[in-house]
Write a structure and sequence with these properties.
With 313 residues, the protein is of the alpha/beta class. It contains 7 helices and 13 strands.
Length: 313
């Protein structure tokens, strides 16, 4: 056990099968994006093939690993260009959710709701009787009318009692943050109605940019990302947690390369500005977008993994 700036660093077993035998695959990593102190290691479990942060912060230390300006709630996202780009992404997520769920829906829960943007979009589009709930470690203090159906809860998902069963639970960029994704997914399954939908996305361990930028790949985001997935390890996790997997597919994400390159630039030039706040970040997203689309079309190795699953009967 080690301690750095109040962050207790521990050696952890595989969060899926519990094995204490694993092989390091990325060692001595630092947080190039938000500069949380410490050095961390990702390892692969030979038993279940899961890649996880074996040298990691303790569960109690995790809140100290998230800066106040963490990017999902960064005010810079409200500038015109990023707001437009994020709106496109949210609309794509909504269309995919609707294909799997339909409009006949009584309740949706978003775990890791960030600034509540996706729930705000659902508020505009879903039938008025649909309950919309979100939970995150930190939620924005928004002014809502007493009649608003949006309910944003600040707290830990595993420690909150939810009063209803949900038709769908969505988790965008969440599974990789969970210290024990198996337990969290089992709890989510208990909150779903029979055959309820689980829908979300995660960084892809297969990303070509991880191999080209082995210390600056945006998917690491050490030490906030605890587990990283390939389709086969994701299937094992979902099956063990009580889900029938409907679809796992690679999806286009221009941020995979742009954040990675910005991580590399800010680290090499020793810039004080966090990569996602650098002036060149959003120009990089626009510049790399066509190239990333082409690479993903040919190789399926540039982007994220989107998953759709149903609670087992």
């Amino acid at each position: 056990m080690d301690s750095t700036s109040g962050i207790v660093i521990i050696e952890a077993p595989c969060p899926l099968c519990g094995s204490a035998k694993y092989q390091p695959v990325a060692e001595d990593l630092i947080d190039v994006e938000d500069r949380v102190p410490g050095r961390y290691t990702f390892s692969r479990c030979p038993t279940c093939d899961l890649v996880f942060l074996s040298k990691r912060p303790s569960v109690e230390s995790l809140p100290k690993c998230y800066p106040a300006y963490y990017h999902v709630q960064d005010p810079v996202r409200q500038n015109p260009i990023p707001r437009f780009l994020y709106a496109l992404r949210l609309e794509s997520r909504y269309r995919q959710l609707l294909r799997n769920l339909g409009e006949n829906c009584d309740a949706i829960l978003e775990v890791g709701c960030g600034d509540g943007s996706f729930l705000g979009l659902l508020d505009q589009k879903m039938p008025p009787n649909c309950i919309l709930t979100g939970i995150d470690f930190s939620v924005p203090a928004t002014k809502r009318s007493p009649a608003s159906r949006l309910n944003l809860i600040q707290g830990e998902f595993e420690k909150v009692v939810f009063p209803v069963k949900y038709d769908a639970i969505v988790m965008f960029g969440v599974l990789e943050h969970l210290s024990n994704p198996l337990i969290s997914l089992k709890m989510a399954s208990d909150l779903l109605k029979p055959h309820g939908l689980l829908f979300g996305d995660i960084p892809s361990w297969d990303s070509i940019w991880r191999q080209l930028f082995p210390r600056h790949w945006q998917g690491y985001q050490t030490p906030r990302h605890q587990t990283l997935f390939e389709p086969r390890s994701l299937r094992k996790l979902l099956d063990a947690a009580g889900y029938d997997v409907a679809k796992i597919r690679y999806v286009y994400d221009p941020g995979d390369l742009s954040v990675t390159v910005c991580n590399w630039i800010t680290d090499k030039l020793k810039l004080q500005t966090p990569p996602r706040r650098a002036w060149f970040y959003f120009p990089a997203v626009i510049l790399f977008a066509p190239f990333v689309w082409l690479v993903n079309l040919v190789s399926r190795r540039s982007g994220s993994i989107e998953f759709t699953a149903r609670r087992k009967s």
